[in-house]
Specification:
2 domains; alpha+beta; three-stranded antiparallel β-sheet; five-stranded mixed β-sheet; 240 residues; 8 strands
Length: 240
């Protein structure tokens, strides 16, 4: 018995294709627009090597939304202009995005327990924690165990740096500089969130300073300043 010949599934007429395009483009645009602030911030954070963003939306969620929205938009355009086949289930993408945003809320930033503290306040707290640890040690400050000093910057009372590099949160960076004076300008290649521990060796003195940014959320590295515009420096002397 010979099988019956099958006929290809007809594509919608041009008028229906354009009606479908308008309907689902509006739904997709509404879903993206409701999440636009979070998507915009996520893109800026993910494409910058030094960006002040202590609280960000779910970056993987943002990337997923952008990928699905872009893929669906291209598919919808091809189905409208080039008569590509578009199964009914594919339209769940804009519907799901819009309904999920309406009932679940748009993408939002994660809570930040240190939200009231800006870059300078966080840096000063990190500098203070580093000084408190150095004051418990003795001997040559240039010979201190760097791991002990770094551990002081990872305590629960020290806020995270707040800077990110290509989306990843950056920890405080510590530089031990053997010199008998504080570091008062950023060293080449050092980014905001870097702390300098200058030490005078046998003199048992040390100086702590730190790198901030001259603009938020992005700017050029500069030193944390005190109330009259000078580089902020914490000094100390350890026991012999």
């Amino acid at each position: 018995m010979r099988p019956r010949p099958t006929t290809p599934r007809a594509t919608p007429r041009p008028a229906l294709r354009w009606l479908r395009f308008i309907l689902y483009a509006v739904l997709l645009g509404a879903g993206v627009a409701l999440n636009a602030p979070a998507l915009n911030l996520s893109l800026r954070v993910l494409t910058s090597r030094s960006y002040w963003a202590p609280a960000v939306p779910c970056l993987s969620c943002s990337l997923g939304v952008l990928a699905v929205a872009l893929g669906y938009a291209l598919w919808l355009a091809g189905a409208t202009l080039a008569s590509w086949r578009m199964p009914i289930w594919s339209h769940l993408a804009p519907l799901g995005l819009l309904m999920g945003t309406i009932f679940g809320g748009p993408l939002d930033r994660a809570p930040d327990p240190f939200s009231g503290q800006g870059p300078s306040e966080r840096l000063m707290r990190a500098m203070g924690a580093l000084k408190a640890r150095a004051d418990t040690l003795s001997g040559d400050p240039c010979a201190f165990d760097v791991r002990q000093l770094q551990a002081a910057l990872e305590g629960p009372d020290v806020p995270p740096s707040g800077w990110r590099s290509l989306g990843a949160s950056r920890s405080w960076e510590l530089r031990v500089v053997p010199q008998a004076s504080p570091v008062k300008s950023p060293q080449p290649g050092d980014r905001p969130g870097t702390l300098y521990f200058a030490c005078a060796g046998k003199a048992r003195r040390y100086w702590i300073s730190a790198v901030a940014s001259d603009a938020i959320p992005r700017g050029e590295p500069t030193m944390v300043r005190d109330g009259i515009g000078r580089p902020a420096v914490l000094t100390g002397e350890v026991a012999p």
